[in-house]
Design brief:
With 374 residues, the chain is an alpha+beta fold. The chain has 11 helices and 15 strands. 31% of the residues lie in helices and 18% in strands.
Length: 374
């Protein structure tokens, strides 16, 4: 729900402060407070329940109101599906309400947990300071667990932008909008027919693919991770932008996997979560000879690549251009550990992918390589 924009497209969604919304099924009444914002769902207001407080609920709530029953049903359904998941703004109840008995045109209401800090994009505009890596990592892991629950239930979110992630007390992040989340209707998956184009994965934005996969939610989560480390959500980040982030090479590698080529992305939120929670150095592989070894070079060497390739062949090895499942050795030149966010670093990212497949590739520094080839 976008903070600070008026729902002028539908004047029925403009509710007067102090007016009362009533659930006619259970009798609960809510007094309208300040306007919070508007978005694809409709409009949002802070509200206060009259006459009674839920034992475990907050004193104030968020009322989301829309004239679209389809989006209302979707929000209510996913709110119930993910009830009590820690990283979700909880939906307490949903109901239809007729504000004007003479008109009989209903508005559809959701009462949910209120996020005091508003959406993440607006919060970062007010607090434009880069997050520490540990803090950003902690919050992204929580969001991954949340979206992982969605993926486990066979659904995708399709809109994990900073406008749909909200800041609660102590700057804890929660997902608060499932307006276009969906289950696949057939084997082709969920259609990529509705999404925020400004932050959509390139393959979808350019029309190269037509189905939204869990890996495309992962793209959004990678963008969110980078935005927290940058302290800004003004625009999408590219792989080159990741290189300049103030964080570890392992985190750069994980983000690059998220926002890079689709086929090499983490397939689900659970896969990305496992990578972040279990990041560790590659298993050490000893190399005593290059005989029959398949070798890849990355980074800047003190000698030319052509000369290095000749030495490999003379030592009985085989030179490969890219990392593959058959690769045995990678010779790492200068700067390579810090180029994981650039095209040249794709080889290092591919090694991470192979390690997940339990294929461990030996790392050689140039000095060790030179000793092996004499």
């Amino acid at each position: 729900m976008r903070v600070g924009t008026l729902p002028i497209h539908n004047p029925h969604l403009l509710l007067d402060p102090g007016s009362v919304v009533r659930n006619h099924v259970n009798g609960r009444r809510y007094r309208i407070g300040k306007f919070l914002g508007s978005g694809g769902f409709g409009a949002a207001y802070e509200v206060f329940e009259l006459g009674r407080l839920l034992p475990d609920g907050p004193r104030s709530y968020c009322l989301k109101v829309t004239a679209n029953p389809e989006s209302w049903c979707r929000e209510a359904y996913f709110g119930d599906l993910l009830r009590n998941v820690a990283g979700v703004l909880q939906v307490y109840e949903s109901f239809a309400w007729v504000p004007d008995p003479g008109n009989q045109m209903p508005l559809y209401c959701l009462i949910s947990e209120l996020a005091d800090g508003g959406d993440l994009a607006s919060w970062l505009e007010r607090n434009s300071e880069a997050w520490k890596e540990r803090r950003a990592r902690r919050e992204i892991i929580k969001l991954l667990r949340t979206i992982g629950c969605l993926h486990e239930r066979g659904a995708v979110h399709r809109d994990m932008t900073p406008r749909n992630v909200f800041v609660t007390a102590k700057t804890s992040l929660k997902v608060g909008d499932f307006g276009i989340a969906a289950h696949p209707f057939d084997k082709h998956g969920v259609a990529a027919d509705v999404f925020a184009r400004w932050l959509a994965p390139p393959e979808l934005a350019e029309g190269k693919v037509s189905g939204w996969r869990p890996a495309d939610d992962v793209y959004h989560l990678g963008q969110l991770f980078a935005m927290l480390l940058l302290g800004s959500a003004q625009s999408r980040l590219t792989t080159r932008d990741i290189k300049s982030l103030s964080c570890s090479a392992e985190t750069k590698s994980a983000i690059q996997r998220c926002i890079g080529v689709r086929k090499k992305r983490f397939a689900t939120a659970a896969a990305m979560l496992a990578a972040l929670e279990n990041q560790e150095p590659s298993r050490r592989v000893l190399v005593r000879s290059l005989q029959n070894k398949r070798v890849v070079f990355t980074g800047r060497l003190r000698i030319s690549r052509a000369e290095a390739a000749r030495m490999v062949r003379e030592a009985g090895g085989i030179v490969q251009k890219d990392v593959r499942h058959s690769t045995d050795v990678i010779v790492v030149g200068q700067d390579s550990p810090f180029w994981k966010a650039d095209k040249k670093g794709q080889k290092l990212l591919d090694i991470d992918l192979e390690r997940e497949r339990d294929h461990h590739i030996a790392f050689l520094k140039e000095s060790r390589f030179m000793r092996l080839v004499g």
